[in-house]
Specification:
Chain lengths: 388, 260
């Protein structure tokens, strides 16, 4: 057993770390306040090859695999969850749906622009009546000769207002249910009938743009079906499996920062004549956070290794998301407590991180849904059927 | 244009500790990086190459132990076309003179070279002597501390800071130029280039003997004599009381230390 990262991954981490410190961290508070990420930042991410990290080079990616992608999400998640969310929605689900379910021709056509950031992707699944219950979607796609006519509305769509390429799930045959009746489509910005609806104002990850996406008889040719008609639900669920791992990696970054802040403050802050780090109450919080960090680190990179070596990883990825998001919320909450009133101040990043971390327990499948995913994998061999 | 950029692997100064009890550097937790100033030199070289209508190539050359290989690959990830590592046990504690000889021999081996770029300072020893020594060894002119390099009608123009003012120096024919951090910050290595930087055939490894360096040529001009430790840092002094009193007390301390 060897836990050493390859030379390539070590240099990649060093490079992304520097990029995050110099290009992302100084803007994190402003991005939150402005509720918007600078287009300049997206351009810089693209120029450094950071918007196609896991994908093969023949599609314009970097070819650094899931391990590379997790390194990226950890290092960006360390400094700005809004930016990590943009990358997660763009790379980890939006583009990934085309990569996982698309034909060779579709990958060659769409992925190079997405991997370089000339275009930004978005993943359109959630609807007013279909959140955790993704199979309940109502958006329809009706065949009309050589085209499909898509009608419906998707909500809470990350990157919605800035995306040019939308991976969309719609029902092509409601009688068959989601498995068999749902199909994934690529819809491009500018297609008549496609519009950005209500912009969401959120508790956290405010720099990440979220909106409703409206489909009013949007006409797309049959070439825009991702893979096969009827395969959409499976493609989207597999995409989410992988996306969860990236979320776990971003949570890992958040915990690292929380621990750094805690340790630094505990060493310097004097009360009752000595540093508060000498108090057992503070040491306990630091020790528990460090233990969470080590656990998540092992889990995230082992799962990334499983993806890169072609093993099944659904259960582990769900565990990364479930454990990672709760551990990140816990770590940042503890760090805030260690900092006292300073932590509660909007002048200090912990207040933003505390709000940002909360979404991790909700999006890309609520933590309640992750329990089902894990339980299903555990109970399958025993013949127990797990359905929400 | 064929450009050689000298890059050196150094210990990250932020990770080097000093053991006072053993009177030596404690390198157990130290990490190695490419000398930050050398990355500016590499950036200048890459810009010249990319702006050269006739094309060209950038070759990174490094002298060091086997681990310095990482610095050669990093230069390739940043954009160098290929790299050369001069490495051997004979160079383990090489002095400035030996390193200069090794680099000059490497430049001659890579002939015809139009330009050699170096960083303006070494992060660890704080000296900036390489460019001058290398120019002397090659018999070429030298420009020190260029902030920017640009192609000109008859060669190159280097912007140097001279007594607080910018001055342009023209160069024709081969030269050695040391590059000072200027407006052109080193680029981030592209993720795909990082993924490809360890492909075989990109880094040529030479021993000193391969470059004709043997015997007397390897004898250095300096040797490490030992570590002289500076005064140990003591804890700061907290001055209490009201603002007026405290300000007076601070002034008193500063005056007594002859700091103002």
């Amino acid at each position: 057993m060897d836990f050493t990262f390859s030379k390539e991954h070590q240099l990649f981490r060093q490079t992304v770390h520097e990029f995050a410190e110099q290009e992302i961290k100084p803007l994190a508070q402003k991005v939150d306040k402005d509720e918007s990420l600078a287009t300049e930042t997206i351009r810089k991410l693209g120029d450094a090859g950071l918007l196609g990290v896991p994908f093969p080079q023949k599609y314009g990616g970097a070819g650094l695999g899931e391990t590379g992608y997790c390194i990226l999400m950890e290092e960006i998640g360390r400094v700005c969850t809004s930016t990590a969310t943009l990358i997660g929605a763009h790379v980890g689900i939006g583009t990934l749906a085309i990569y996982m379910g698309g034909t060779e021709a579709q990958k060659m056509r769409y992925m190079p622009d997405l991997c370089t950031g000339r275009k930004i992707a978005s993943f359109c699944l959630t609807e007013p009546g279909a959140g955790s219950d993704a199979a309940a979607i109502r958006t329809s796609a009706i065949r009309d000769g050589h085209n499909y006519i898509i009608t419906g509305s998707k909500i809470y769509i990350t990157n919605g207002p800035i995306a040019s390429t939308f991976s969309v799930m719609a029902m092509t045959d409601p009688a068959l249910g989601a498995r068999g009746g749902a199909t994934a489509f690529i819809v491009e910005k500018g297609t008549p009938g496609l519009s950005v609806g209500k912009i969401e104002h959120k508790m956290g990850i405010r720099g990440s743009a979220t909106s409703e996406i409206v489909f009013d008889e949007v006409c797309v040719p049959t070439e825009n079906v991702i893979g096969q008609v009827g395969a959409g639900f499976v493609t989207f669920m597999q995409t989410l499996d992988s996306g969860r791992l990236g979320l776990g990696a971003a949570s890992l970054g958040g915990i690292r920062t929380a621990l750094e802040y805690m340790a630094q403050y505990a060493a310097g802050r004097q009360q009752f004549g000595k540093p508060i780090g000498e108090k057992q109450s503070i040491q306990w919080m630091i020790a528990e956070t460090a233990a969470d960090l080590d656990l998540l680190y092992s889990l995230v990179y082992r799962t990334a290794w499983m993806v890169d070596t072609g093993q099944a990883y659904s259960r582990e990825a769900a565990a990364c998301k479930l454990f990672g998001s709760t551990a990140a919320s816990r770590a940042i909450d503890r760090a805030l407590q260690v900092h006292g009133a300073l932590g509660y101040s909007r002048d200090f990043p912990l207040e933003r991180m505390w709000r940002d971390a909360r979404i991790g327990e909700i999006f890309e499948g609520t933590n309640e849904v992750q329990h089902y995913v894990i339980a299903e994998e555990v109970l399958k061999p025993y013949g127990v059927r797990v359905r929400p | 244009m064929r450009i050689v950029v000298c890059v050196k692997q150094v210990y990250d100064p932020a990770t080097v500790r000093i053991s006072r009890s053993r009177e030596e550097f404690d390198l157990r937790g130290a990490t190695r990086i490419t000398n930050p100033a050398d990355r500016y030199a590499l950036e200048a070289g890459l810009r010249l190459r990319d702006g050269d209508a006739l094309g060209g190539e950038v070759i990174a050359v490094t002298v060091g132990d086997a681990q310095a290989d990482d610095t050669a690959h990093e230069a390739i990830a940043m954009g160098a076309d290929h790299a050369m590592l001069v490495s051997g046990r004979e160079l383990a504690a090489a002095s400035g003179r030996t390193v200069t000889r090794a680099l000059a021999a490497a430049v001659e081996r890579l002939a015809p070279v139009d330009l050699v770029l170096t960083g303006y300072i070494g992060a660890v020893n704080g000296t900036g002597g390489l460019a001058g020594r290398l120019a002397a060894a090659l018999g070429w002119p030298v420009v020190l501390d260029a902030l920017q390099l640009a192609p000109a009608a008859d060669g190159l123009e280097a912007l140097v800071s001279y007594a607080g003012e910018g001055r342009l120096v023209s160069l024709s024919g081969p030269a050695v130029v040391s590059v000072r951090p200027g407006p052109e910050r080193p680029r981030y290595a592209h993720a795909a280039r990082i993924a490809n930087a360890w492909q075989p055939g990109l880094v040529e490894t030479c021993s000193p003997a391969d470059l004709g360096l043997e015997g007397d040529l390897l004898i250095g001009d300096t040797e490490a004599g030992g570590l002289v430790l500076g005064a140990e840092r003591t804890r700061g002094q907290v001055i209490g009381g009201g603002v007026e009193d405290a300000a007076g007390a601070v002034l008193e301390v500063l005056r007594s230390q002859r700091l103002i």
